[in-house]
Design brief:
Order of helices and strands: HHHHHHHHHEEHEHEHHEEEHH
Number of strands: 7
Number of helices: 15
Shape: globular
Strand order of the largest sheet: 1-2-7-5-3
Largest sheet: 5 strands, antiparallel
Radius of gyration: 20 Å
Protein name: PARP catalytic domain-containing protein
Helix content: 40-55%
Structural class: alpha+beta
Strand content: 5-15%
Length: about 350
């Protein structure tokens, strides 16, 4: 099994250490869907995706790219952690494990932190998170702001942050992270990966969308006689959480047939300036979304109204480092075709969010 990107390991770590119900469900499941590529199948028909039945938690965790040694540790850990102190201790364990992985690439942690900045008040001073008081946010602000400035982030440093005089807000922050993002991002296996991007651009396959978004999208697909197309959308990094959790909320939604067209929307200067003012750790990064749209394919830019928002489903997230040049026309076309080809390989149970059968 090839080593996963450090950022993916970070996501897997916090999902694993804070979501025991999922692991208990995995352990009970007698049947699992594993996606693998049949290298000898030359036809482009999606039937080359092979389904194997297994009864082990190890195989489920392999599907989600969680390291085996971590999987063994999770399996032996007490999953009935109702005591409040034990929950706080779990948050510290999560921080230590995540920091160890992120020592090789600090951006893995920043990718998680970026989602906390998705809502900013009018003064652009404080985060606004659901179920958080102003005092909680004020306490956490120095903690979050200090991390991007760290030249070397060690597990001991992060644990010391978590063990300071405010462990409970930190723990609630960890839980909020997991509940909102713990099941969303996963590394695409090789046959679902979009080719043509440089190595420093991170790819994420988006699984388990909110049920209300999934159901509305499925209804739109049925209304469109089952036809969908692949489109691109560029956006500022602080809107990622809102789009994934609530869908598109703007009055107009622009999509393009090629990634190069949407590139500049991922780096809009106004959004960059606003995020820089609040010390967003990834203020100069951009987000490119790979969408499935319940519409026929169109090669040009299309302007959709809010009434059509149910037609969109985010399938891929591409994190663009600052100053990443827009791909040339030929490369942009190659990337677009690659995503279309990769998307055709998605098994239906993954698209529909049914990973239990």
């Amino acid at each position: 099994m090839p080593a996963a990107h450090p950022g993916y390991h970070c996501l897997d770590l916090y999902a694993s250490h804070t979501f025991h119900r999922f692991l208990k469900s995995a352990a009970r499941s007698p049947k699992e869907t594993i996606m693998c590529r049949n290298e000898h199948f030359e036809d482009s028909n999606p039937s080359h995706i092979k389904h194997e039945n297994t009864g082990t938690i190890r195989n489920r965790l392999r599907t989600l790219a969680i390291p085996f040694d971590l999987a063994d540790k999770i399996r032996t850990e007490d999953s009935d952690m109702s005591d409040h102190g034990e929950e706080s201790e779990l948050a510290i364990k999560w921080g230590k494990a995540m920091a160890k992985v992120c020592e090789v690439n600090h951006r893995g942690l920043y990718l998680l932190l970026m989602s906390f900045y998705h809502q900013i008040d009018h003064q652009r001073r404080l985060l606004k998170l659901s179920d958080y008081s102003i005092s909680d946010v004020q306490i956490l602000q120095p903690f979050l702001r200090g991390l991007p400035e760290s030249k070397t982030l060690t597990s001991e440093a992060l644990v010391s942050y978590l063990q300071e005089n405010h462990p409970e807000p930190v723990f609630r922050l960890v839980k909020w992270m997991q509940m909102n993002f713990g099941q969303n991002y996963f590394p695409p296996p090789d046959f679902l990966k979009v080719s043509g991007f440089s190595d420093d651009i991170w790819q994420f396959a988006v699984l388990n969308p909110p049920a209300r978004i999934r159901d509305r999208f499925n209804a739109a697909v049925i209304q469109n006689n089952g036809q969908t197309s692949v489109r691109w959308h560029g956006t500022a990094i602080n809107t990622l959480h809102s789009i994934l959790q609530n869908g598109f909320q703007t009055e107009k939604i622009w999509t393009a047939g090629k990634p190069g067209v949407s590139w500049r929307y991922a780096f809009k200067q106004g959004a960059r300036d606003a995020l820089k003012a609040v010390r967003h750790p990834l203020y100069d990064y951009g987000i490119l979304l790979g969408l499935e749209v319940a519409d026929p394919p169109v090669p040009t830019i299309v302007t959709h109204l809010q009434a059509d928002a149910d037609k969109f489903m985010v399938r891929y997230v591409f994190v663009l480092p600052p100053n990443t040049p827009k791909p040339r026309a030929t490369a942009s076309r190659h990337i677009a075709l690659s995503m279309e080809a990769a998307f055709r390989e998605w098994p239906s149970e993954v698209k529909d969010g049914d990973m239990s059968s």
